[in-house]
Amino acid sequence: MALIDLLTKKKSVIVSRWFDAVLESYPQETATFMKSQKNRFANPVGCTLAKEVEDVYSALLKGSGDTEITPFLDNIVRIRAVQDFSASAAVSFVFLLKRVVRQELGKEIKQNDLTDELLAFESQVDKLALLSFDIYMSCREKIYEIRVNEARSNVHMLLRKAKLICDDPDSDSEVG
C-alpha cells in the first residue's frame, strides 16, 4: 500500500488531529471555544481554521501546486499574523502535520517500508511552511504599512490643529 493511499484512508482522523494540534497554540479557553462552537458567525476564526486545514490537506493529497494551496494557507496565516504570533509560531501549524502523520501512520509506514514516500511527503510539508512564512511576512508588512500611514495622518492632524502647518495650497508660508 502506498503512503498516499494511507493518507487518503485516514484523512478525517489526520485532519481532526491536525486541527486539534493547531488549537493547542491558543490559550485553553480559546481552544475549547474554537473547537466546540460550530457556528461560523459566532466563531469565525475556529471555523476558518477547521475548513482551511482540511483544504490544505486535501490539496496536498491531490498534489496541488503553490497557486492552488496558497489561498488556503493565506486564510490561516492571515489570522495568525494579526493575532501577534511570532513568525515561527504563526507558521508552526504546518509542521504539526508531520507529527500527526507520523503518530497516526507510524506502524503502517514501517510495515510497508514507506520511509522514502514519507520523506517526500514531509518535503512537501516543508515547502508549505516556507510558503506560509512568505505569506506571514507579507501580512506583517501590510500591518506595519497601515500603522505608519495612521501615525503620519495623526501627526499631520495634530500639526494642523496646533496651527504649525497650513493645508491651504495657495499659501506658500507656514504659520509659526
Describe the structure.
The chain has one domain (3-150). The protein has helices at 3-9, 11-23, 28-36, 44-62, 66-82, 87-111, 115-161. It has 176 residues and is mainly α. Helices cover 78% and strands 0% of the residues.
List the helices and strands and how they pair.
Elements: H1 3-9, H2 11-23, H3 28-36, H4 44-62, H5 66-82, H6 87-111, H7 115-161
Helix pairs in contact: 2-4, 2-6, 4-5, 5-7, 6-7
Order of helices and strands: HHHHHHH
Model regions low in confidence, pLDDT < 50 over at least 5 residues: none
What percent of residues adopt helix (DSSP H or I)? over 70%
Distance between the termini: 81 Å
Approximate shape: elongated
Query: Taking all residues together, what is the mean pLDDT?
Result: 91
Number of domains: 1
What's the tally of helices? 7
**Mind summarizing the main beta sheet?**
none
Structural category: mainly alpha
Q: Strand portion, in percent?
A: under 5%
| Tally of DSSP β-strands | 0
What oligomeric state do the depicted chains represent? single chain
Radius of gyration: 23 Å
